[in-house]
Design goal:
single chain, 412 residues, alpha+beta, seven-stranded antiparallel β-sheet, four-stranded antiparallel β-sheet, 24% strand, 2Fe-2S, NAD, oxidoreductase, Aromatic ring-hydroxylating dioxygenase subunit alpha, metal-binding
Length: 412
């Protein structure tokens, strides 16, 4: 078992531009430190507003021993509560989603309103005040339809991320979407390696045949697509500038937003490859009912990456969101959800296989890579290795982790 002084020593060994020391990826103590300190001190992406679309819809987000109920009230408000009964502590919601008019504990049937208030409790003494026994709230914020929770009693600021993300996502109106498919994958790899893998496309060319039908991997991780050819005027650069001018005219142009002032979000509008207008196998929309107002001719998608546990892609016809949760030091849950227009009908407007095939294939490929990475790092022969220039966003993730970890130790 590593003590916190040993975690501190490991963090001190971390060098800029290099991967982490082995034990920070592989030890049980680092996993406990990550889930009990690091990840409790930050905002975590849980799900979207479409996952709790109707009043009474609830969704459970779990991190190690903690379980959080995200629930939409009769008033339409979305709130979050610890999934532990205020009677004798039983877990109230015991599957990962549902719809109920009240939240009833299965043990002695205390019943709670969707706003967390205790409504009924049998046989309690006369002095008992129901108002004092409501569910304990968890901090929740809605960032343009993406729901984030924070398990700390004093969550860090979120205003800048909220403003930037909400501004970009207004175009896609997540309130009008529904979840068409959700899929869980468990990677036998540490969560930080699964995240690192997401933050580079250095591995894309030889691994992501399906994804590269629509995504141009070569620009990923560089400053911005038009910078990838260096300073000179090239045909590719001219084409990119022309396209961005078109976006500007449509009012969808945005500069790259990348961890502004030390924030934890990155937003980029990407040019899709090979004439694709959506991230599908044939590059065509997978759903007939579009979710944005600009038709199906724009060769573009919007992406949002947040530290430390999510990434999201917004196409003209669908959204794919990814939430990542560590399960043990060498197991990570990658939960992927595909959202389409609420009026779209399966088999009429979209085929589920066609909608999900690119990212299902990509997730399997990435799982294999993260597992190879974890297995190799366990070796006595492993030493922290140097990131390439295409891996600067991996370094950005790693330093976010290290800085948050150091701050958690300092505040302990
Ligand atoms: O989904 C992503 O954001 C990254 C970029 C390209 C590959 N990768 C899985
Ligand atoms: Fe929930 Fe008793 S523990 S009603
Ligand atoms: Fe990948």
């Amino acid at each position: 078992m590593i003590k916190s002084s040993e975690i501190a020593d490991l963090l001190l060994q971390v060098r800029p531009g290099y991967t982490l020391p082995r034990e920070l990826y592989t030890s049980e103590s680092a996993f406990i430190f990550d889930t009990q300190a690091v990840l409790k001190s930050v905002w975590l992406y849980a799900c979207t507003v479409a996952h709790v679309k109707k009043p009474g819809d609830w969704y459970v987000f779990e991190l190690a021993n903690n379980s959080v109920i995200i629930v939409r009230g009769k008033d339409g408000e979305i709130r979050a509560f610890h999934n532990t009964c205020t009677h004798r502590g039983a877990r109230i919601c015991n599957s990962f989603k549902g719809n109920n008019a009240r939240l009833s504990c299965p043990y002695h049937f205390w019943s709670f309103g969707l706003d967390g208030r205790l409504l009924s409790a049998r046989g309690m003494p006369e002095s008992f005040r129901k108002a004092e026994h409501g569910l304990r709230p968890v901090a929740l914020e809605n960032l343009g339809g993406l729901l984030f929770i924070c398990l700390s009693d004093s969550p860090p600021p979120i205003d800048r991320a909220k403003a930037d993300i909400a501004q970009q996502l207004a175009l896609y109106d997540l309130d009008r979407l529904k979840v068409a498919e959700q899929c869980d994958l468990i990677d036998d790899a540490n969560w930080k390696l699964v995240m690192e893998n997401n933050r580079e496309c250095h591995h894309c060319e030889s691994n992501h045949f399906e994804l590269l039908n629509s995504l141009d991997g070569s620009g990923f991780g560089r400053d911005f697509p038009e910078d990838k050819d260096g300073g000179g005027e090239t045909a590719a650069k001219a084409a990119t500038s022309a396209q961005r001018e078109r976006w500007r005219q449509l009012g969808i142009y945005q500069d790259l937003i990348e961890f502004p002032d030390g924030w934890w979000h990155r937003i980029a509008r990407l040019s899709l490859a090979k004439g694709a207008v959506s991230q599908t196998m044939d590059g065509k929309p997978a759903c007939k009912k579009l979710i944005w107002p600009h038709g199906d001719k724009e060769e573009t998608s919007l992406s949002i990456w947040t530290q430390p546990n999510s990434w999201h892609h917004f196409c003209c016809d669908h959204v794919v969101t990814f939430s990542l949760v560590p399960l043990t030091e060498d197991k990570t849950l990658v939960r992927t959800s595909w959202l389409v227009h609420e009026d779209a009908e399966e088999s009429v407007d979209y085929d589920l296989g066609n909608l999900t095939s690119v990212w299902k294939a990509t997730n399997y490929q990435d799982r294999r890579l993260a597992e190879f990475n974890h297995a190799g790092i366990r070796s006595d022969g492993y030493r922290p290795g140097l990131y390439s220039e295409e891996e600067r966003l991996v370094e950005a993730f790693k330093s976010f982790y290290v800085n948050t970890a150091k701050a958690s130790l300092a505040n302990a």
